[in-house]
Structure formats: structure tokens, C-alpha cells
Amino acid sequence: MIDIVLTDDHPVVRAGVRAVVETEPDMRVVRECATTAELLRWVAGGGRADVVLLDLRFGEAQRGGVDATRDLVAAGGPPVLILTTYDTDGDILAAVEAGATGYLLKDAPTDELTAAIRAAAAGEPALGPTVQRRLLTRLRRPDTSLTRREIDVLRLVGEGGSNDAIAARLSLSRATVKSHLAHIYNKLGVQSRTAALSAARQRGIL
Amino acid sequence: MIDIVLTDDHPVVRAGVRAVVETEPDMRVVRECATTAELLRWVAGGGRADVVLLDLRFGEAQRGGVDATRDLVAAGGPPVLILTTYDTDGDILAAVEAGATGYLLKDAPTDELTAAIRAAAAGEPALGPTVQRRLLTRLRRPDTSLTRREIDVLRLVGEGGSNDAIAARLSLSRATVKSHLAHIYNKLGVQSRTAALSAARQRGIL
DNA sequence: ACCGCCCTCCACCTTTCGGCTGATGGGGGC
DNA sequence: GCCCCCATCAGCCGAAAGGTGGAGGGCGGT
Description:
Helix content of chain A: 40-55%
Oligomer: homodimer
Strand content of chain A: 5-15%
């Protein structure tokens, strides 16, 4: 019997996963949590399970699921299977780097979900088809990656800052900001800040 | 008995809503659809229901739910209750303008969902609390709204186009594009195209 | 008929941005 | 030890964008 902890801030999704799981004879939901804090408390309090089903974003908290995953893995908890609607490169990579065993999108058919749960419970990786495709295309084009500093700059560009403003915010000279931007333009194959933003968003950076 | 048609591309969400609905004695799901096309075919083929539960976005199609709502309302179909994860001004307004009877977020508790279904089935408006708050704040600040043309321009700015490129794409003179942008900056209280993009995204335009 | 809003366009000027060609120092790999 | 990448900075130039101050036509409301 596979014991599952279900953590999602959407009651409807929790009910859905529970309904799907209950049609399988070899798995059951032993606990539902609406927040990552509740999940972590439950685990810390001695809760045991074979797999944690976890959403990535909770309300306004964009990285709640990633942080919780890191905590669970660090504490030697059960394998984590991410179940979310977001399929950008950044989300997927962040989850995998945090130690997630699997990554599934909410639009996956139910048999894919149960298969992923069985795989995750056995400690095997369980990546949805869409997720696998994204990872592969990223591997085929590794030059898209920006350095930490470049991402810092690009993020501030996305908030509407001028080169001067960005320089001030990062305690740099304007020349350095321009230099970073020039590198960004080169890597993304564009020639303006707005085009860079567009390209970066399209590729899941930011 | 309230007959419900359930339209969502997420199998898990469909299972969840079905599970919630089946705990209520006075309502039932008479049909599940994974796409708006399937829903429209079913209705055109004589399918009858008291309320349509509809997601807004289907896969890559951003406005699938809005278009379907328009079609259903135009055809005199059953009231439409939007059930979605997206809570930006633009999404909500588009749905309401298309004729949706209600708008609920997927993170709503289950009793809110059943209450909204009953209201929608009776033809009464059914807006979730978060949605109501958004509409009120928008009413308090109506000056945030951009004209059609301004949104056209801003969208192309978001794709990284220069003023010249935008002018060419919209068959305008560069002066007109600059004029639209000047108005946009004024309305949003910014002074650069990237800052305008940032502000527009934050307020759910685009 | 008038007013207001939207869309279109023009000219002039200042600021900013992007392209180019550099330079320096630190860290990691071979 | 050497080389490459990253991060930092500089100056110069042309192009683009933003600010100002207009103008005219269309359309809807009062």
C-alpha cells in the first residue's frame, strides 16, 4: 500500500487527486495539507508516507513548493512528486535541483498520474512527457543559459529600470550594466532590452 | 436537481469537481468535456444542463474559455460559471464581458464552489471574494484602462519591437506610435517602455 | 452645436540605449 | 603556469527613445 501526502492550496485539486487515488487499490491518501507549512509540521511531527504530492506555488508565494522540497529532501523525508500547472524551464529546473523525484503537470491524464505516483514511491524518477521534452530541448541548446549576474540585470530590466537605475540598485557602474546587457543580447540573439525580455520569458528564464 | 456540464482540460480538476459535486444531494455532473469544442458540440447536439462549469485557458489557447462563453450566451445556452486559476483583471473582465454568470478561483473552498453553482444555476451572479475585490479596486481606479490601440501598441512593445517595427506592423507612422506610448506612460505613471510593460503586467493588462 | 475622447500625424530637442573597442582582476580547469 | 570565463569598468559614436507642444478628423453624448 502506497501512502500519499497531498499538499495543494486548491481544495478542488485535492479532491480530484483523492478521487483518482481512491480508484487504485494499492494507494491511499493519508493526509491532506493546504500549505507547505502544514506539510512540514506534519512530517516533523512524525507523519510517515511513501510519497509527497506537492504543488509548486501557493497563493502569492511563487517558490513555496521548491523550498518545501529542499527541506524535505534535506531531512531525508519521502520522495517528492511535484504536481503543478506551471511548465516553464525555470520552474522545472528549480524543482529538480531542489531534489524533486518527479514533475507532473496537472493536465496529465489520470493513468499518468498513478504511474508517476508508483514510480516516485519506488524512488524512481517520474517526469511527465511535456517536462521531458522541455528538459531535452534545453539540453540541445545549452547556450541559452545566462550567468547569475546577467539574470540579476535582466530581472531589473523587467521591472522597468534604466541602466542607471539598475547600476544603482546593484551598486555597479553604468558601464558594467551595459556590458552585461551586451552579453545578454548576444546570447539571446536580440538587440534591445524589450526583445531580450520577450526572448527570456519565452524560454522560461525569469 | 442541478445538472452540471464540466469543461476543463485537467483530468484531476474534473475528478475533483465531480467528487465535490457528488457529495451534494441536489446536483450532479451530467457530462465532462476536455475541450471547449467538445462542450459546444455537446450543446449543439441537444445536450441540456442547468449550469456550465468552464475553465478559461485550455493548453496553449489563452482565450478558449472566453470564446466558448460568448458562443454559449449568444446561443441562449445555460448560465456559465468560470472556474479557473487566473485572477488578473484582464481575465475576469473578459469573462464577464463575454457573458459569464459567475467567476470562481480554483483555490476557493468547496462550499464556496457549491454555493456558486447553486447561484449560477438560478441565473444569479456568482463572483468569488477575490474576484469581487479585484472588480472593486478597478472601479475605484478606472484610469488604468488603456484604449484598444494603446493595448495593440503595448503588446508589440512586449514582443520586443522598436517604434519603427511597431509602426510598420500596425501600418502607422512612427509619430503615432510614439504618441500612443506617451499616453500609455502618462496613464501608467512611468517613463519607459519596459517600465510600462512591468506596470501593465502587474495590473493584469496584457 | 459643442465638447471630449480617440486616433492619426508632425517637428525639435534631450536623454538614453546599443555597438564597438578596449582594459583589469579573480577563479577554475587542464 | 596558462587560458578561459566571469565580473567589473572606460570612452566614443550613431541610433533610438522620450519630452514638449502642437494639429486635424471622426465619433458619441448632451
